[in-house]
Backbone:
DNA sequence: CTGAAAGCGCTTACAG
DNA sequence: CTGAAAGCGCTTACAG
């Protein structure tokens, strides 16, 4: 399957009777050329069906006009939407998009970053799987590769970042439940450990109002923190029994812990889920137990999914602007690639509480 | 933001006291080198933090180890899953993935293909937006660029392809409804025109049993054909009034036509939707009209979405193996890239009817 | 405005 | 096994 017809700039130059330098200038759109030669070159290029080889150009310019993205899982609606936002601005600027999945696994993430670096992407957007150890990201920074962090920050890495204000959004959601009269509110969260001292220690400190390095916390931990703050503000105790940890990005894990809680004595009157995967597992558990929303249980979900609007009752949710987050990240990255030199920026985008019918007034 | 520390093979060779050829051989893993020199080179590479420049390598080998994909919309669950499948096998084989969206628009698709070709991808997977005019795809073929078609075939283009057997799957779904006693069954489909003579002509021919070029029909048309065949087989007339065309990939468009039908006199007792976007629009319409499934209306949806299993009642659906389709497409493409030389293959993957609670027995 | 020459960072015959 | 040299397909100073 050898490629036929692969005309090079030398072929075009020969056919047009000019030097390769001149042919390059008109085809590449740089430098000056007389109208006459321009026309000759274009004509020759057309008959030879000349297509530039971006590799050769990149090798010499040092720019590939390609963005690299390491997402957790492109199948997950959060990433799919953010990726679409990134793609929109990349495309509008004539950039290509090299996409990889980390599955929230640091080893895979490192491998992805390496692949993208070798392919000489002009910059990277990464949703890191570990907010603490991230030598590969520090290395990028050291090598001067533009980098934007999406969704999660990294301890000690001062680079551009876009995320949602998770703490504020979660706090708002939980206060909404409290305002509706709920006192026993469960939270369903990933809370992958990442050596943060464990859930118990975290709860103790957070409940005590200990100022914590909330900025670099993993999102589900931030949302838990918002949940705790809502309780503190409203003068309600936090019941550790209602703090459900799935331990991984798994709907099944969420389903299991929710089932267990809802069949135990004194189940909560409301649940707050911290992302789409947890929401899905929770919905499965409720369907399985034949529990009705909001009669048997009220619910607010972090991340607004399509079905929440036509589910009956509609599900009250916190909508992150996924698409806009992706767009913002890509725009910031493009600015860095262009060489703009601000200090590192953090863009915290507002999440919106969408009230529907899943919260009962008690 | 100039990159520092960008060691080249020449730097490594110098540090190791060998020629660039030798350094290249050990770093690139080709040719033979003595253990001694190997060690020297590796050591030098390590201290210089050498990272190969894939561009330079590709320029000379003619291979980029990168796959190009043009999807309709990576945010759509069908594409997101298929892409994940593609990504899985690409990654397992050390290939990168360059992804673009066409938004089902031919001009954008052509632009995407051009971008990917210029970036010298080793092969392409495309879900084309037009199954008839596809010169850009014929050109790829002529240039010897490996190409796999996903989901849709192109008239006269004999290349590898993976898709679902849409006609059979739709037929099965509709016969399932008929078997449950339904006689007035509506279908909600995109049916973008693409010069196929229009819906009326199509219906007339299909109902008459006219053998049609079903292979290269756009999926929603194929599913309509399955719907018609089910009626023919069961000896039921096809009522054109129940044939709903959205005209575009828009949930809103589907919602509008479904609302109109369900509020008109003599609404159907069941609906069959031809993909996730149509399903979503349909669900919105039903929620809006406060229609209950399956009491007021039975439903079968093409494409199984997460929420269909925990919706109450569960929604009976046709599940396409999206992930497996993506994996199959990528595997076939990789085989072509390796130079394997079968005649063009068509892989039709089976879709599965998942019975849940959305079909009432009449 | 135009061309000859060098060079981007690698790999690939070709001698030895 | 190893090195000098050429070359992949472009762009970029540098003269003229």
Residues:
């Amino acid at each position: 399957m050898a490629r036929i017809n692969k005309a090079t700039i030398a072929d075009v130059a020969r056919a047009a009777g000019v030097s390769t330098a001149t042919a390059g200038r008109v085809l590449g759109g740089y430098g000056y050329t007389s109208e006459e030669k321009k026309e000759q070159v274009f004509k020759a290029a057309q008959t030879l069906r000349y297509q530039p080889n971006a590799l050769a150009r990149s090798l010499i310019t040092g720019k590939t006009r390609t963005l690299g993205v390491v997402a957790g899982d492109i199948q997950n609606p959060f990433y799919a939407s953010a990726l679409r936002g990134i793609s929109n601005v990349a495309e509008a600027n004539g950039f290509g998009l090299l996409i990889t999945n980390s599955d929230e696994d640091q080893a895979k993430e490192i491998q992805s970053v390496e692949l993208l670096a070798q392919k000489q992407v002009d910059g990277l957007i990464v949703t890191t799987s570990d907010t603490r150890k991230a030598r590969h990201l520090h290395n990028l920074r050291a090598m001067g590769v533009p980098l934007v962090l999406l969704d999660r920050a990294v301890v000690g890495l001062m680079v551009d970042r876009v995320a949602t204000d998770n703490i504020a959004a979660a706090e708002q959601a939980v206060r909404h439940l409290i305002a509706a009269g709920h006192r026993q509110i469960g939270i369903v969260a990933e809370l992958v450990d990442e050596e943060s001292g464990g859930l118990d220690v975290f709860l103790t400190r957070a409940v005590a109002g200990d100022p914590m390095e909330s900025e670099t916390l993993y999102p589900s931990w931030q949302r838990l923190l918002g949940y705790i703050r809502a309780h503190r503000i409203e003068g309600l105790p936090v019941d550790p029994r209602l703090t459900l940890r799935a331990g991984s990005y798994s709907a099944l894990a969420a389903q299991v812990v929710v089932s267990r809680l809802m069949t135990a004595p004194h189940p909560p009157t409301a649940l707050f889920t911290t992302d789409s995967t947890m929401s899905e597992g929770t919905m499965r558990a409720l369907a399985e137990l034949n529990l009705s929303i909001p009669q048997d249980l009220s619910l607010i979900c972090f991340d607004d999914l399509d079905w929440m609007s036509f589910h009956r009752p509609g599900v009250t949710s916190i909508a992150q602007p996924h698409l806009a987050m992706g767009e913002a990240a890509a725009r910031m990255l493009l600015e860095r690639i262009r060489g703009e030199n601000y200090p590192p920026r953090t863009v915290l985008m507002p999440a919106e509480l969408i009230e529907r019918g899943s919260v009962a007034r008690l």
Observations:
- Chain B touches chain A through 62 residues (CB under 8 Å).
- The longest strand of chain B covers residues 66-71.
